[in-house]
Amino acid sequence: MTSQQLFRILVAAFEKPAHEYKDARLCWETKLNVMSLLEEWMTLCVMDAKVIHDDLKSFLARYIRHTGRLSASQAIESNSEQQPNDNSNNDNNGDGDNNKKKSAEFSLGHAQSQLAMSLQTVLRKSEEAFSKATKSIKTPTDSFLKKFVTVDTRIGDFESRNIARQITLMDHELLKAIHPRELTRKEWARRPTAALRAQNVLKMIDVFNRRSFWICAEILSYKTIEERAKLLRKFIHVAYELRQLHNFFAMFSVMTALGLMPVMRLHRTWGQLGSRTREMYSRLAVQCSSDHNYRSYRRAFDKGLGKPQVPFLAVVLKDLFQLEDLDGQDDDGNVMFAKFQKQWAVIAPLLDCQRIEYADIELLQCCRMSLQAGIKMKLWTEDQLWRLSYKYKPRGAKDEQSI
After folding, report:
1. Is residue 294 within 8 Å of residue 346, measured between CB atoms?
2. Average pLDDT over the chain, rounded to whole?
3. Whole-model pTM above 0.70?
4. Which residues 6+ apart lie within 8 Å of 131 measured at CB?
5. CA-to-CA distance for 360 and 353, rounded, in angstroms?
6. Do residues 110 and 196 touch, judged by C-beta distance below 8 A?
């Protein structure tokens, strides 16, 4: 596969007709994911930018003109005017329907503005990469294709330690993008405005869910019990390496994937694991237990303060959500600082984690791009995972099989 062929595949995914999707959200997510991959491609592999420069520039210019009518600021302004007042009460069912309609309109407008900004970003990155490539006298020894699209390199081909380290770099970048204000006033849970006021929190939540479903699908994509067991063992070791790196966010994501029933029900696959791997999985399961308000995780996280860490975001949001229900004023209207002190006690450790970098981890482009592609290019659903699982162990069957 050449650079031009890969580019055409991405363009085809971007231009897939909307009527072929179940809903508009999936259509817009695919377009944004293609833009994200193009941006990553142009950033990491400048020599490939020289090869596809003219075609990419023409493609971007065409859609920038198309979306130029709705700039990011116009989208935000126009949609903010449509937002329902948080303090208003619905007097009848008709008002509730109108609010739902406005929320849907807002989502479309925000997606359009995001796409407009993404197109401009990719154009800028491609021009920067093209400039670097034309000035360089070096011959590219590794292209994007060799690093990512040589489809022989599935994620199972990489070492567990390298997978965990690249995931950690990616997750720490997501963590650093979160602004403290996104963590206040339950902004991430306010449906009409969350996409604007807590977009980085929502992005991190989306990565958690996508990664879990993708890992489950990767295991189920292998047709024999031995192959499935091999990848299952691989991801258990990845979870262990993530624990060593104090990336609790990804550790919970991997363990969530392994605990999904489409994988968990395949008993013969699990039976292929050795005693040491089983013991490792059991220890990790204890670490991820929600018992006693995630006591095991909280203790491990507290011990790691001052070191590079990625906290489990769900616990942070859970604590902040509960604190928002406390009164901020007493009966006389005086501010009760105890509430805000408790909020700061939750947010401050996260800000420390943003500040402390994983300085000893090197970027491995091949592994990173494989991880990015796996998460972004396919939107797995629970129904799809169950259909894969039923291929190996039909509903009601007692035994699992290879096919």
Report:
1. no
2. 83
3. no
4. none
5. 15
6. yes
Would you give the DSSP letter of residue 92? S
- In three-state secondary structure terms, 2 is coil
* Contact criterion met (CB below 8 Å) for 374 and 214: yes
Cβ-in-10-Å burial (0-12, 13-18, 19+) of 141 comes to: exposed
Q: Which two tokens stand for residue 14?
A: 């971007």
By CB neighbour count within 10 A (0-12 exposed, 13-18 middle, 19+ buried), where does 13 fall?
middle
Side-chain half-sphere of 290: how many Cα atoms within 13 Å?
6
Distant-in-sequence, close-in-space partners of 139: CB < 8 Å, separation ≥ 6? none
Whether the pLDDT of residue 17 is over 70: the answer is: yes
Residues 6+ apart with CB under 8 A from 155: 163, 218, 370, 371, 374
The pLDDT value recorded for residue 136 is 53
Mean pLDDT of 354-377: 88
Confidence check: pLDDT of 222 > 70: yes
Q: What is the CA radius of gyration of the chain?
A: 23
